[in-house]
Amino acid sequence: MSSETGGGVVVTGATGNLGTSVVRLLSEDPQVPWVRGIARRTPGWAPDRTEWHAVDLASEQADLAPVFRGAGAVVHLAWAFQPTHDPAKTWQTNVLGSIRVFEAVAAARVPVLLHASSVGAYSPGPKDRAVDESWPTHGWPDAAYCREKAYLERALDAFARDHPEIRVVRMRPAFLFKRESASEQRRIFGGRFLPGPLLRPELLPFLPDVPGLRVQALHTDDAARAFHLALRHSGARGAFNLAAEPPLDADRLGEMLGLRPVRLPRTAARSAIAAAWGLHLLPASPQLFDAVLRLPLMDYGRARGELGWEPEHSAPDVVREFLGGLRAGEGADTEPLRGRKVG
What we know:
By secondary structure, the chain is α/β, with parallel strands linked by helices. Helix 1 packs across helix 6 and helix 3 packs parallel to helix 4. It is built from eleven helices and 13 strands. The radius of gyration is 19 Å and the shape is globular. The mean pLDDT is 91. Strands 3-2-1-4-5-7-11 form a seven-stranded parallel sheet, with helices on both faces. Strands 6-13 form a two-stranded parallel ribbon.
């Protein structure tokens, strides 16, 4: 760990998909004297040199001062994906909660802030080439997830301007998956009534090929390594794209899963998603589907060149691991990730 982050590290959202990987990596680093994990509900999981603090960032009474005191860095990962039918509620947690974190970092004079932004912060962009970190970050305004991520990019611009003494890093990862997060992500995107064991390629007659559906994936542990490297690199500032190769589309997924891609018009796919979402059968909103079709592909050359980061898992390997976790009902021993029965 660099001299500026010689103290311990505070991690918000520490029990989630990315948080568990970041906490695990930091707890294994002998240069990190302690890790303080913040979550709404403290887990039974107890990595070395890690202590837990139950704090709800959505609450105006959230007291972050004692948790941040003496920290060498804060890694802000906390995020609520649901309820998608109540964007005011996710705004309370994601935007107002994040601003509380930023203000507490400044008040506690923490020298380093790492923030988990996302590919979802980017404005619509190309699918045939990758863009760097200079691509506009205005998001897709109809989707709450993108709108909130983009708003926080502007908040961080102002924060970095007003606090030049704080090293601010924002990571923009692609969609993150690992085996231990499979049950959580099934509930977030597919709904709690979707049986994981039924998500088997051999049960599908074909693979829907929707125009524009070309995305990037990344193993959560690979993203955690990038956060760790950015903590150690005292010169790292600004934004870093994180993604694995190759991009995933219907042709590649069909080849990987042994399924025949069949072209499905956007309107038909969106109508089906909108109907299921309107009936509260599907948590993922049609607006998020619209955004995914428009997200650009990201070039991660800056992370490679400045941090020395390379993903260890290919995108197809990430998908295979995740699907295996879905079928087995996998989940880590934290409240967000714990595997649960359907219903």
